[in-house]
Design a protein that fits this description.
- The chain is mostly helical and 66 residues long.
- It has 2 helices and no strands.
Length: 66
């Protein structure tokens, strides 16, 4: 069928045939993603999150562990 023909030529022929039918794709319902709530766990203060990273970095620099 397409032996010896370049891939791009075969691909273009297939696309042309598909477009020549004039048929539209069936309507599909919108895809919707329902994300889980993004709240933090109890006891975690979002204001202090950056401070915790700084503490870990300081501990890493000092070579100390808690």
């Amino acid at each position: 069928m397409s032996a010896g023909r370049p891939f791009q030529s075969v691909l273009n022929d297939v696309i042309r045939r598909g477009l020549a039918t004039g048929q539209k794709a069936p309507a599909r319902p919108w895809f919707r993603v329902e994300a889980p709530p993004g709240g933090l766990l109890p006891g975690i203060d979002p204001v202090k999150l950056n401070q915790d990273e700084e503490l870990v970095a300081q501990m890493h620099r000092d070579g100390s562990r808690r």
